[in-house]
Amino acid sequence: MSQAKEEDKVELKALVLADSFDELFQPLSLNKPRCLLPLCNVPMIEYTLEVLALSGVVETIILCKAHADKLVQYIKQSQWTRGHMQMKVVVRTVRQATTIGDALRAADEFSATISDFILCTGIVMSNINLSRLVAAHRANKKRDPNHIMTMLLQEATGSHRRHDLCDESVYFIEPGTSRLLALNSHPSVAHVRSTVIQSTVLTEHAEIEVRADLTDTNISICSPDVLALFTENFDYHIMRRDFIHGILESDILSKTIYAHVLEGTSALEGKELDLLAGEGLAFVGHSGYAASVTDTAAYDAISRDMIGRWTYPLCPDNNPSTGAEYSYHRGAVYKASSVRLDRQSRVEHHVILGANTHVANFSCISDSVLGQQCLIGEQSMVRGSYLFAGVKVGQNVAIEQSILGERVTVLDNVTIGRGCLIGDDVTIGPNITIPPFTRIARRPMRLSMDSPESMQDGLDSEDEDEETGWTEANAAAEHDVGSGSAEADAQEQFDAQAVGAKGIGYVWADSTAENAGFDSDYDDEDNMELQLQRLHTIGSTVADANHAESDHDYDSHDEETNAHGLEDIKLTPQEEFERELHLTIKRACDEDLSPSKSALEIKSLRMSYNKEQDDMRAGVMQEVLRTIDIGSMAESAKRVMYKWAPVIEEYISDGRDQLDLMGILERYCALEDEIDDALRSRLFVRLVYLVYQLDIVEDVAIVAWFNRAEKKPAGEVHPELLRALQPVVDGLNESDDESEEESESD
Question: Rounded CA gap, 284 and 348, in Å?
Fold first, then answer.
């Protein structure tokens, strides 16, 4: 008992695996460790360190191989080396490691831990307090001396965006104790229709819970025995495939592993976790969020979760880094204060705009993250993509579900298909289509006959530099040659058909397909690896994996087909409608058309795009409001509203429509960038007065909308606009009371 009490008093430590021994992020991670790549414009290692610090970890040891010097330099310059920080962060270089097993064996050699510790990758996102899970782990150890690990799993059904398309895992869990009895994993492309487990699992346990809706968060609570077992078993290379399977199926070791399942994806909202007792064992009952960035598909899913605030309090406007501050706007749009949006640009929803970013007229950004100092030219579209710092996009460019590294330049008339990974300092274009799932880097791809064994597990690392003879000196030399200077570019020859006439960069082939050219034994197993590589990529679907091999044999006919297919992503039907509506109203103003003619043209547009009345009301009203000259607000607003009132009335049928129109006015006055903050309230009150005076909206609707708006959560309605409208509402209420008194007296 005294030993257990001493263990509870031991300072909590964490081991962080910064590498993953695969190439799933290449070429984005050519110049820096993967954990320093930005996620929502914050280096990913910051999220890991933040959750560990909040969980009471006293010392975190980061095991790193690739670009270890850059990670050391980053930590030295970060907030984690300041005197007030409670957690100490140490970077340990494991140069000889080629697998996760090697890295953990190295950690055991320098006695990294002497008590229970947290083991995770360098890129995990979580809003839970892991110290309570550590307490449950230690409580279970007192009752089960063979207990060595507690895995943290997250619910994610097959349709969930964080469900791993590459892996199909079935967990067999004992319901009363949460003990993991068996784990059966296989690649999803293998199409396995059955699972195999030891017969003793079924005969020795009265009740078993079978779960196929769980994903591994790559966060575990481990006893020191875990490191010792890796040292004793040199055939343990990958955490799940080798170690966990080995422990669960071994008749000799007699060690046990427990699983804690996070139910759903709801945020904790600051609630404490309860330590409960059940069946003689301890477990933690709560909901929360935890996930790890294992590939670019997971990177996309977790970024969307963070923008959607599923990871609260870890959100873009409350990020753990000391970088740019973001303000939250309706539609889950986060903007730095120095962002510049031209009047006719459109930022739709679920977007982060970094500091000093500029979006030009007629460009559209949606479901994307733009780093600092990004420039988006006119008539360009960025959808479902991630642009790192310093990216420059020309005119008439379409980027769909791709990731672009730092300082990438995309020239005019370029289409980048989904699933593309573009490395730092690459230039593409002009007038070219990049096929889906293309990888382009600033330097040529190095060929390796030895593919990493850890391609299938989330706890892996980045480079096999020493094994393949690729040293930091080689990388530095190539970086100097491919640094993007004019002299270096003049000495190199680039494939104009691949990257454009002015392009700078090299197209990387799929690693498995490239090896097939040197291996006469290229077979279905190699094709399976190629399919898995496709599924690991942002924007991928199961259908993409089925066509992965045929996509590799890309010819001119395929190029024509892809170019034609990608042309459709320039503008969606909704985007085409909005553009046509803008041009229609602009033409009506320029040519001073009568309201009847304007209404006829807009009605024809509605029929062409088969739009509902609600869509037309929102679209027409927004475009009409944008024709108001803010410089002469009072006169211009009156002139515009009197001219367009007959058109607006066609889309107002009842009280519900009037309430919706009030919401449109509020959103415009609150969110339109061209309006000075000092004028927003005045314009809103002016517009409400005009729609009331023109009998577009009744007084009852104005009062009803105001009362509802007051009850909405903070942030959904601009408070200054409500305060400005209060006297108007009071006046309408008094008028109604006087009318009632007069009618009663009569």
Answer: 40
Label the pairing between strands 88-93 and 38-39: unpaired
Give the pLDDT of residue 277. 36
What is the per-residue DSSP string for 532-553? HHHHTSTT--HHHHHTHHHHHS
| Strand duo 290-292 + 124-126: pairing | antiparallel
71, 18 contact by CB (below 8 A) = yes
Q: How confident is the model over 208-251, as pLDDT tens digits? A: 998 888 888 999 999 999 999 998 888 888 888 889 888 888 87
Q: How far apart are CA 189 and CA 542, in angstroms?
A: 8
Q: Give CA separation, 707 vs 657, 702, 722, 735, in Å.
A: 16, 9, 10, 17
Q: Which amino acid is at 618?
A: A
Of 106, 119, 118, 42, nearest to 74 by C-alpha is 42
Buried-state track 662-691, b at ≥16 Cβ within 10 A, e below 16: bebbbbbbbebeebeeeebbbbbbbbbbbb
Kindly state the tokens that stand for 247: 């422990």
Question: What's the start-to-end Cα distance of the chain, in Å?
Answer: 89
User: What is the pLDDT at residue 736?
Assistant: 63
Q: Which region among 99-113, 557-571, 712-726 has the lowest average model confidence (pLDDT)? A: 557-571
Length of the chain: 746
In contact, 139 and 221? CB cutoff 8 Å: no
Specify burial of residue 353 (Cβ count, 10 A radius: 0-12, 13-18, 19+).
buried
The per-residue pLDDT for range 579-635, each reduced to its tens digit, is 888 888 888 888 888 888 888 888 888 877 888 888 899 999 999 999 998 888 889
Are the CB atoms for 470 and 446 separated by under 8 Å? yes
Dihedral, CA of residue 637, residue 638, residue 641 and residue 642, to nearest 10 = -160
pLDDT for 269 beyond 80: no
pTM to 2 decimals?
Answer: 0.69
Residue 450's contacts (CB-CB under 8 Å, 6 or more residues apart) are 464, 467, 468
